[in-house]
Structures are given as C-alpha cells and as structure tokens.
Design brief:
Oligomer: single chain
Distance between the termini: 38 Å
Bound molecules: biotin
Shape: globular
Largest sheet: 7 strands, mixed
Helix content: 10-25%
Number of helices: 5
Mean pLDDT: 92
Length: 245
C-alpha cells in the first residue's frame, strides 16, 4: 500500500510506477484528479477517499467495464455493511445516494494486443467533503457521506471494506462467475427499466435501460422495439436535461 499526501492523480501514479498485483495507492489530495472523458475530479484535501487499485490479471481479461461495475458494487456493499446506508449504481461508473453522485470510478488499462496487462481501478468517494464546496458546473448533482449522514465518517475502515469487497468480486470475475455480480449490480441500479438517454459526443441514444451486457455495456430497448447495445457515454434520465439539476 502506498500512502501519499499529495499526488497528481493516484491513477497516474499507479499507471507509471511498477507496482505488484493488489497494490493500493491512496492519497489525501490530488493536484490533477481525473474523471472519465477527460474531465477533472475535484476533492477537498484530507476529506475523501482517493485511491487506485492495481490489478494484473493472470488470465486475459477483455472487458474493463466489468471491473468498473464490480468496483461500484463494492462501494455500495461497503456503504450498506459499514454505514447502513443504501447506495445505488448508475451506468457505467457512478454510485449515487439520494439520486446524487457520491462516488466515481475510473478504470484504465495497459494493453498488449487484446489483453490487459495491468488495470488501474481509481475510486473517488466523497466522504467528508461539503458538497457546496464542489464546483457548481458538475455534470451531475453531487453529495458526500457526511452530508447524507450528518456526521463525520472515519475514512480508513470504509476504504478497507471497499477493498475487501472489490477483492471478492474480482476473484469471481477471474473465475468466470459473473452472474451474481450482474444480478447485484442490477438490484442496485438506479435506472433499471427506466427511460434514459446516453450521450456520447454529438449522439444521444434514448430508450429503456433493460440490462447490462456480459461486457458491461448498456442494453437499451428502443421505441421501435429494437435492442441497442451502447458501450460508452454519459447517462441521464430521459426526463432530465443534460445540465446540472
Ligand atoms: C468519474 O466519475 O468520472 C470518475 C472519477 C474517478 C476519480 C478517482 S479519484 C482516485 C483516482 N485518481 C484519479 O485521478 N481519478 C480516480
């Protein structure tokens, strides 16, 4: 385990350093925290969980998205087991509480051909951050555990619990037993069977969110009854604008 007071990004650090399978990089602050799609991740120093886990799969792993889903489920496991608060997952990489984003996951990989040699699973969880100190122009409304629970949360046991749960799901993925993970993800999904739109660049796809594919893509039922599989994008509820609400 590497514990840093300040780093550019725990994901960047974990990608560039030579670290063994299972290594965890934790930081109190990031100067260039990264989100998906080239966005920034904002987090007040010393208040949150900012960590990256290094995975070096023994067997070829072709779908990074499944690891992201597993990490989101691991975060909700830790919320319910450790804090008795129910989180919901939102495709592809968010955890919500009370409809607001509390955690984001960024999985990055070093590839050789079609195989991932090294995966870095970055988890950013708003723990004791005051939501009103976050930038006002975030894509989704945000909250923190302290704001939802009305008390300061001890970060270390929570981070440990997330890691324990992620390890369990990772073992299941590696041994090819993904059914329980997908079921758990769908049980906790904030938008299963709801009308959603998924925006990628200039394209918006709208449909009913029916499922996640074996590779972790979104499966939408379109108005013409066709099924569409969407691998990437930002998901919004259909009755929500693409702006902060
Ligand atoms: C997102 O919601 O877009 C993903 C956010 C991921 C943030 C975490 S914080 C720890 C790790 N280091 C980073 O630079 N990003 C991830």
């Amino acid at each position: 385990m590497v514990i840093l007071s300040t780093v550019d990004s725990t994901n960047e650090y974990a990608m560039r350093e030579t670290l063994p399978h299972g290594a965890v990089v934790l930081a109190e602050a990031q100067t260039a925290g990264k989100g998906r799609m080239g966005r920034s991740w904002y987090a007040e120093a010393g208040q949150n969980i900012l960590m990256s886990v290094v995975l070096k799969p023994e067997r070829p792993l072709h779908a990074v998205q499944i690891i992201t889903l597993a990490a989101a489920v691991a975060v909700t496991d830790a919320f319910s087991d450790h804090l008795a608060i129910e989180g919901q997952v939102k495709w592809p990489n968010d955890v919500l509480i009370a409809g607001k984003k509390i955690c984001g996951i960024l999985t990055e990989g070093q590839v050789r051909g079609p195989e991932f040699l090294k995966l870095v699973v970055g988890i950013g969880c708003n723990v004791n951050q005051r939501p009103d100190t976050l930038p006002g122009d975030l894509l989704y409304p945000a909250t923190s555990l302290a704001a939802e629970l009305g008390e300061t949360i001890d970060r270390n046991p929570l981070a440990a619990q997330i890691l324990t749960s992620l390890e369990k799901w990772y073992q299941q993925i590696i041994s090819g037993e993904t059914a329980v993970l997908f079921n758990r993800w769908k049980e906790r999904c904030a938008h299963l069977n709801r009308a959603v739109k998924i925006v990628l660049d200039d394209e918006t796809r709208e449909g009913i969110f029916r499922d996640v594919s074996p590779k972790g893509a979104a499966v939408l039922l379109m108005s013409d009854r066709d099924i569409l599989t969407v691998t990437s994008g930002d998901l919004f509820w259909s009755d929500q604008g693409n702006e902060k609400k």
